[in-house]
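Lab notebook, bench 4. Still working through the backlog of constructs that have no structural model yet. Next entry is a single chain of 191 residues. Request: give me the structure tokens for it.
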Amino acid sequence: MEVLKDLQLQIALHNDIRAYRQLYLLLSDRLQHFSFSITKSREGAEEIVSDAFIKIWQKRSQLHGIDNLKAYLYTTTRNLSLNYIAKQSKSPVRVLNEVPAETIIELNSPEEMLIAKETFISIEQVVHRLPAQCKAVFQLVKEEGLKYKEVASELNISVFTVRNQMSIATKKIGKALFVVVQEPFAQAVSN
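Model written out:
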């Protein structure tokens, strides 16, 4: 328990990436097992634990106020796992590339068709412009459906690096989608 507290303080007070990696290596397998026991999905459990650790890093300056970091991570993982189950029950699992755009987005007008087309083009452009390693990781995870550990093995990098590269790719795609969604809204407001 003392080791966790030391790592927690190193992350909170010094933004120590090494301590963050040690924390991940120390707890990620157990958290994935815990998440899997709830979700029954290995891929889902990997992403959930990845998201839990991303939240830890994002809130690192507030970590010193958490009394029991291990319990906090388990609670976060549990909540994310329950959210995952709820989301999965509302929509069946599908690989995005195999589903025609028309079935994902209800296209009732030429304007909606244009927005959908622009959205897919934006995503493709962002993925194309990603740095080489980030692009490879994203394509292997999202397009090939590989698990983080499989991608790490194939590219000879750590699971931690895979998780970080996926986070970078997701943020960049999210920003591109925000722009695509905002442009028609801005035009409608100005008209």
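Notes after review: The domain at 2-90 is CATH 1.10.1740.10 (Rna Polymerase Sigma Factor; Chain: A). The chain has two domains: 2-90, 96-190. Flag for follow-up if needed.
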